[in-house]
Every structure is written in C-alpha cells, then in structure tokens.
Amino acid sequence: ATPENIALVEQTVSEEAIGEPYDGQVAVASTIINRVMSPDYPNTFKEVIVDGQFATSKTKTPSASCKDAVQWAFSHPYIFPPDMYWFRSGYYHRFANPYTKIGNHYFSTKEKYEWFIE
C-alpha cells in the first residue's frame, strides 16, 4: 500500500468507525482491504472508497488509534474471512451472510445465494 492509500483508508476508517472500539476500527480497515483484494470489486483503494460505498473525511485528522488500527490491518491480512465485504450500524445486511458484531457495526461476508435466503 502506498502512503496515499494508507492515508485514504485512515480517513475512511476515521469517518466510518468514529466512536467504535479499536477492534471495530481494524475490522472496517480489513473490510476495505478485502474489497480491494477481491475480484468482485475494483482493485484500487480510490475506486473502492471514493467511487464506492464508503464515507471519507478530508477535514478530520485521524486519531492515533485509527492510524494504528489501519497499520495493523495492512500488516495482518485475512484476520477476518477474505469475503467480509459489508458492515453497517444497527443490523446485518439481509443480502449477505452475518459474520460478527463489533461495537455498533454488524459485519457480513459475501452475498447469499438465492437458495440461502430464508
């Protein structure tokens, strides 16, 4: 990852995981990295973040905890399933497989196939 990509992920984690525990910040960073590494999504951080579905802030300075969480996620790939692509507050996505809840975020893996839907 380039310094520019790391800074972009830090800004995104700072915006998306504000108030979340350190593990939640790591999980958000890992979700972004998983998307970039996946053949199912664009293969650049800019396309996944800026042109994708993530919020980012260029006005906030990421906290030391946020920066550390992003560095940790980049140096420990695949601590979560490589198809963990989704998170949201409040509940799991209905179109994906629930994986875990950290803080207020619900993380999900790859979309369900039609025959998985209840």
What's the topology here?
Layout: H1 3-16, H2 22-37, H3 45-53, H4 64-75, E1 84-89, E2 96-102, E3 105-111
Antiparallel strand pairs: 1-3, 2-3
Taken as a percent bin, the fraction of beta residues is 15-25%
Report the major sheet: 3 strands, antiparallel
The SS-based structural class is: alpha+beta
Which strand order spans the largest sheet, edge to edge or round the barrel?
1-3-2
Query: What does the radius of gyration come to?
Result: 14 Å
List the helices and strands in order.
Answer: HHHHEEE
Rounded to the nearest angstrom, the distance between the terminal CA atoms is: 39 Å
Number of helices: 4
Overall form? globular
Low-confidence stretches: none
Helix content bin? 40-55%
